[in-house]
Amino acid sequence: MSYVVGLKCKECGHRVAIGPVHVCEACFGPYEVEYDYARMKGKVTRQSISAGPKSLWRYKDLLPVAEPRTGFFSGFTPFRKALRLGKELGCSDLWIKDDSCSYPTYSYKERVVSVAISKAMEFGFDTVGCASTGNLANSTAAHAAMAGLRCFVMIPHDLEQGKVLGSLIFGPTMVRIRGTYDDVNRLCTEIADKYGWAIVNVNLRPFYTEGAKTYGFEIAEQFGWKLPKHTVVPTAGGTILPKVYKAYREFIELGLVEDNEPKIYSAQAAGCNPVVKAIHKGIDIIEPQKPNTMAKSIAIGNPADGYYVWHAVKESGGWGESATDPEIIAAIKLLARTEGIWTEPAGGTTLAVAMKLIEQGRIPKNESIVISITGNGLKTLEAVQNDLAQPEAIEAKLSEFDELLARQEAKGEPAAKPADRASRPAVSVI
Amino acid sequence: MIQTMSIKVRIPSPLRNYTQGADVVEVAGNTVGEVLNGLKEKASGIETRLFKAPNQLNRFVNVYLNDEDIRFLKNLDTPVKPGDELSIIPAIAGGAYSRRGSSARVHIR
């Protein structure tokens, strides 16, 4: 059962039939998928969703796809209470939505790509592609491989090795562009125009962005069919934040959750914060920037959906902040140390910004807070390799180990004492 | 009076129905603003697609002078010289595949 009505321009309201178009013919505004919510009522329920597969496709009724073609194991990632991090920050109701382990390439991009590639196949495209800061390229290449489609991925020339190899392994044609992401994006616009391929984040953008809603749906469902009061979301191109907000509003509209007036906050790196600057100024004009941050996955100086991030933040009563590179690295390490989650700089940015907002008192410590972790640190080894002490090497002698512990103790590390034999756990030998 | 030079303006497919399908149009002008304003003489009706008000581009229209976003230059007041090239690109991740445009070369299996 499809509840899709068609495409509608977000700016002027001009309507067209579903097709691989994303720019309004009348005003250049973006098209968005329109649904018939009235018809969904009573049919799209907590029960109908709960009965679905444990993947992002459990929300298929709220996605613009007739038949899923990929992403059968993507999404439905862990949603966890962060007890140790919460204690560290003095927060009693702190949660993490963890897409660092989303199948198969460890980022939230599985969600948007699963929807975009399913739609591309529905339209009959045999070639897909993307403009990417790395994660999207990884995901597009993997899903294209699964679906057997030709794939072109375009990235800035200076990405982390993990992100480059993490695409190449799937066998796409990868092109490194000498320039920033914004240059890559512009080129992809022209490529989509000239070659008529399905560039997932360009001409399939109305469908692609809808996939991001599943991140918000999952938060609401996994939180026990209620909404967190505060959700902190990273902003790069600006896809996920407005869609998390839209997901919350759709669940409210359908009566699946109570409206607790959820607030959404945007997190950016200080070296690339055009949306946060506009939020602080109170003017919805996003001035483009030349990015300068180690958080490469969110180094987008001319965010496609920045304007909608601004409005989602304002409408919800949220705010935005940015974090410096050292703050980002410190937050990556804090999350790893307290929660056992290794995220990439985008996740470090989100946590660092959440900490700022909590310190500022904008987010009260005793209310429910969700930190959006959207990517995996294993892909960005470069980000922390100079910030972690190289481990010492010793001979395989207990005396050397004893000395190493003594040295650590002298440096202020917690002392380790030989265990009392009686208190050791019993070992049973079979 | 010194003759103003013409420069090339690249037209994205959603706007080519105003240029009889042409993807490049030559227009005279001394600044980006003058060139874009001059476009309407060669592509009647295009002005309302580009401008919200006189000297104010629509939110979703991005203009590049030789690959640089004019917002990093002097916006519409940026001077142009012979050999320069202007590109008009829709802002939301840019140009569309248009079924009407000349780019309708979809590879169907």
Offer a concise description of the structure.
The complex is a heterodimer of chains A (430) and B (109). Chain A is an alpha/beta fold and 430 residues long.
Based on the model shown, name its key terms.
heterodimer, A: 430 residues, six-stranded mixed β-sheet, four-stranded parallel β-sheet, 15 helices, 13 strands, 37% helix, B: 109 residues, alpha+beta, Ubiquitin-like (UB roll), five-stranded mixed β-sheet, two-stranded antiparallel sheet, disordered C terminus
Question: How would the blueprint of this fold be written?
Answer:
The complex is a heterodimer of chains A (430) and B (109).
Chain A lengths: L3 E6 L5 E2 L14 E5 L1 H4 L5 H5 L28 E3 L1 H7 L4 E5 L10 H15 L3 E5 L3 H13 L2 E7 L4 H8 L4 E5 L3 H15 L2 E2 L5 H7 L1 H10 L7 E5 L5 H14 L9 E7 L4 H8 L24 H11 L3 E4 L1 H15 L5 H15 L9 E5 L24 H13 L20
Helix pairs in contact in A: 3-13, 4-5, 4-8, 5-6, 9-10, 11-12, 13-14
Chain B lengths: L5 E5 L13 E5 L3 H11 L4 H4 E3 L2 E2 L3 E5 L2 E2 L15 E6 L19
Parallel strand pairs in B: 1-7
Antiparallel strand pairs in B: 1-2, 3-4, 5-6, 5-7
Structure overview:
The complex is a heterodimer of chains A (430) and B (109). With 430 residues, chain A is α/β, with parallel strands linked by helices. Among the domains of chain A are: 1-35; 79-101 and 212-383, Rossmann fold (3-Layer(aba) Sandwich). Helices cover 37% and strands 14% of the residues of chain A. Chain A contains 15 helices and 13 strands. Chain A has helices at 37-40, 46-50, 83-89, 109-123, 135-147, 161-168, 181-195, 205-211, 213-222, 240-253, 274-281, 306-316, 325-339, 345-359, 398-410, and strands at residues 4-9, 15-16, 31-35, 79-81, 94-98, 127-131, 150-156, 173-177, 198-199, 230-234, 263-269, 320-323, 369-373. In chain A, the strands form 3 sheets. Chain A has a 6-stranded mixed sheet with strand order 4-5-13-10-11-12, sandwiched between helices. In chain A, strands 8-7-6-9 form a 4-stranded parallel sheet, sandwiched between helices. In chain A, helix 5 packs parallel to helix 6 (161-168). The model of chain A has no long low-confidence stretch (mean pLDDT 94). Mean pLDDT of chain B is 79; it is low at 93-109. Chain B is globular, with a radius of gyration of 14 Å. Chain B has helices spanning 32-42, 47-50; strands spanning 6-10, 24-28, 51-53, 56-57, 61-65, 68-69, 85-90. With 109 residues, chain B is of the alpha+beta class. Chain B contains 2 helices and 7 strands; from the N terminus they run ββααβββββ. Chain B starts with 5 loop residues before the first strand and ends in a 19-residue tail after the last strand. In chain B, the strands form 2 sheets. In chain B, strands 2-1-7-5-6 form a 5-stranded mixed sheet, with helices on one face. Chain B has one domain (6-90): Beta-grasp domain (Ubiquitin-like (UB roll), Roll), CATH 3.10.20. The longest helix of chain B is centred in the middle third of the chain and has 11 residues, at 32-42.
